[in-house]
């Protein structure tokens, strides 16, 4: 294989084929079902599926025997399923490479810069701004770019399956049904490539070694059946906000941000501690400078290695939503009847998130202050994280070589603080599978927030690395 020819093909394909379609994808407000309960009625998810499948159809036809289906199970988000036979006309080497991405998006969020917005694609220099381009709309396009680049040079590869789901940002609750439904067609993948993760910088390929889980729910504290005059009731009726704050203290030390519930912790593997230290050395102050701190706000801790471990292997609490309160401009002198808070605890990769939810519910609901009515509703429970199995020697060499060729720098390893439910699901079903989890969400790319962007040069380089790893996967048995 000629690596320069590979890079030239993929660079041109991105410019000519990917970016025009990805720009149109950003315009579609196809929010994940958790944020758009009427997603089916609104039709935006269908628009995104149609855009991607219309774009992919001629590229699917470029591979002999390849097929593409939009699989639909009743009441569930659609899933794009593409099968591309191996270069020997069947399952080359008896293997399958599974490539994964998603097409649903996070909600709008406020704070976009002037002239920008979640559904307004804006190209500035090497960045394409807008919701979903980097998380994770580019995935299906990058998969085809990598496979077509290999085909151009007649590089052999195994059978490839591409799965693009529509429910990832809601916790992938539809995906298990599709995996079971399609199990025979998926086969037994020996390599999974997921393009939905982050990168510490733009200078090298980053391999995700773990993903935290999530234990989220709604905490509701009620002290009155209706609001009353604060001048009449304060000092007699306890504040529901103060009780909520006190209950959250059972989970978290509000002075330091350290979690207090023992059931939320695990022993961190020594290898991951060492990798966190190395990642901190490589990134330096960028570990925290990538975040848009306001004013003189500082990080919770000073040690860079501990920052990396805090966001990858330690539980952390975030209050992500509140109800029961008027906007400040509309707020009268009323002692409010209840406080409702959506809380989210990121759990360590190896912790059973459902057990974490049970521990949280017990801690929050037991012995409520003043006998207030307290309920913690976590719905179906938490979503456990994922810890990568050790890399096989061939894959360790492949990712090292791919990073060096695509980026000119060695590969780096780091856990991610978010959750990709599909990884844990696949790890359970295919325990011998090797995983490459990588992505383009680097410094300031701000997935889920305002001014999210795709760094185009990194997208191209990750695509090159993906092609190289698919080729190395085939060669490993020779």
Automatic annotation (TrEMBL):
Keywords: Hydrolase, Metal-binding, Protease. Residues 210-368 form the Peptidase M20 dimerisation domain. InterPro entries: Cyt/Met_Dipeptidase, Peptidase_M20, Peptidase_M20_dimer. Pfam families: M20_dimer, Peptidase_M20. This is M20 family metallopeptidase.
């Amino acid at each position: 294989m000629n690596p320069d020819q590979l890079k030239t093909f993929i660079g041109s394909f991105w410019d000519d084929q990917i970016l025009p379609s990805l720009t149109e994808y950003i315009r579609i407000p196809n929010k994940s079902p958790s944020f758009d309960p009427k997603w089916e009625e609104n039709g935006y998810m269908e628009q995104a599926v149609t855009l991607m499948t219309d774009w992919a159809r001629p590229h699917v036809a470029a591979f002999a025997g390849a097929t593409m289906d939009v699989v639909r199970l009743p009441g569930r988000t659609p899933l794009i399923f593409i099968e591309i036979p191996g270069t020997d006309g069947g399952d080359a080497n008896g293997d399958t490479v599974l490539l994964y991405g998603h097409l649903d998006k996070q909600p709008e969020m406020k704070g976009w810069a002037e002239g920008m917005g979640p559904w307004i694609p804006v190209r500035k220099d090497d960045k394409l701004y807008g919701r979903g381009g980097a998380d994770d709309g580019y995935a299906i396009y990058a998969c085809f770019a990598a496979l077509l680049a290999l085909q151009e040079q007649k590089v052999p590869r195994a059978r490839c399956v591409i799965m693009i789901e529509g429910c990832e940002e809601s916790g992938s609750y539809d995906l298990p049904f599709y995996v079971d439904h399609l199990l025979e067609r998926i086969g037994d993948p020996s390599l999974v490539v997921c393009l939905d993760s982050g990168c510490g910088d733009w200078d090298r390929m980053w391999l995700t070694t773990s993903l935290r889980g999530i234990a989220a729910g709604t905490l509701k504290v009620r002290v009155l059946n209706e609001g009353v005059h604060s001048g009449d009731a304060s000092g007699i009726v306890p504040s529901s906000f103060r009780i909520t704050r006190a209950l959250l203290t059972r989970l978290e030390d509000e002075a330091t941000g350290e979690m207090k519930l023992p059931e939320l912790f695990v022993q961190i593997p020594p290898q991951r501690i060492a990798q966190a230290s190395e990642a901190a050395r490589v990134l330096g102050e960028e570990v925290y400078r990538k975040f848009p701190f306001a004013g003189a706000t500082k990080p919770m801790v000073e040690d860079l290695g501990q920052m990396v471990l805090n966001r990858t292997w330690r539980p952390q609490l975030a209050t992500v939503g509140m109800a029961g309160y008027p906007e400040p401009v509309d707020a009268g002198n009323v002692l409010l009847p209840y406080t409702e808070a959506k809380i989210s605890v990121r759990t360590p990769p190896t912790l059973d998130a459902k057990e974490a939810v049970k521990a949280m519910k017990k801690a929050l609901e037991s012995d409520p202050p003043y006998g207030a009515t307290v309920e913690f509703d976590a719905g179906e429970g938490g979503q456990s994280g994922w810890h990568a199995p050790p890399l096989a020697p061939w894959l360790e060499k492949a990712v090292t070589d791919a990073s060096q060729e695509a980026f000119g720098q060695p590969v780096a390893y780091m856990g991610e603080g978010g959750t990709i439910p599909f990884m844990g699901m696949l790890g359970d079903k295919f325990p011998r599978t090797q995983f490459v989890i990588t992505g383009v969400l680097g410094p300031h790319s701000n997935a889920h927030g305002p001014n999210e962007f795709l760094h185009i040069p990194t997208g191209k380089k990750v695509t090159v690395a993906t092609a190289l790893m698919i080729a190395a996967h085939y060669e490993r048995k020779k």
